[in-house]
Fold:
Amino acid sequence: MKKDLSKISGFYKLSVSERQALISKLVNLNKEERKILENFGYFSYDQLDLISENVIGSYSLPFSIATNFKVNDKDYLIPMVTEEASVVAAASNGARIARKCGGFHSEPITSIMIGQIQFTNFTKPDYVKKILIENKDYLIKIANLCDKTLVDMGGGAQDLEVREISTDRGQMIILHLFVDVLDAMGANVVNTMVEKIAQVIIEKKMVKAQINLKIISNLAIYRVAICSAVFDKEMLGGKDIIERILDAQAFAKADPFRATTANKGIMNGIDALALATGNDVRAIEAGAHAFASLNGIYGPLTEYYIDNDENLVGTIEIPIPMAILGGIIHKHPMTKIALKILDVKSAEELSQVAAAVGLAQNLAALRALTNEGIQSGHMKLHIRK
Ligand code: MEV
Structure:
């Protein structure tokens, strides 16, 4: 390895072609590798260079469709971007079993995100809290001046609360701004709003405290999707398999080592849909795992029980801050196609569908694991290929 290989000053200032040439030279890419690097697919160099930084290539992954999904009595074709074999087949399989008893039922979801402002270095916490609460309407008004369009469409900052927390660097006051972000993921608007509020608090010397962080919280507890389905006992393989699935679920509830893997399986589907639709996978992942441990113990995001007809009922409860607007969503040609295939009218509808995908994925994984294991499915897939 060359010394100081990665010490490249002003790499960002180079054009895409110059960066490609430099990296190719540094790591000795051959002609064939350079040809792959230079293939940007349906993107122009300029388009990708605008989306991210230090771009030298474009990275393709399979774009697949999961079938059999019925959510709230509407049929959906589910676009999925994943490199993991059998994720799409598993989702389609879980949805096929749910379909026999009517498919998935997802509850309405609100689209409120939380913005946080951190106050430190104060001597009178109660006074700081009192002033912030007294100025609540004013601060909400300031926040809403940041995005008139959102407000005109019925969204915007709606409320705020002030919390005091104990930390290993002393007491802190945390302001929570609640913003209805409608069909967006919300990071841009929420961050703009909390930065603006903080600036006004400082300029007006409203409180004797230092303002530190001003940032959205990715723990989207007001965007929680709750979705359930009845899974037919015959299609599942009978009573014994259902008992085994319940045992597997009890295992996950009692053991974070298993719960992590179960939730990873759920996210296999949700992430694939999030990627296909240009959503922020990292935000959804972070929120999901934090939510899975909100009561202090990390647990599975699903629940199962047997109903009076001896079918298996599954429920998933998971924050899904998905968007149909903003970010890369209307810039990426494939996300536009994904949304057309999905035919969702709102972020809420997309999140309801995503929850169904997560539940289908979990059920299918549990069914395989309690039956023949997942490797034989993988092998069948390989042989078919
Ligand atoms: C593999 O990507 C996902 C599973 O491990 C999920 C699970 O164990 O529930 C099969």
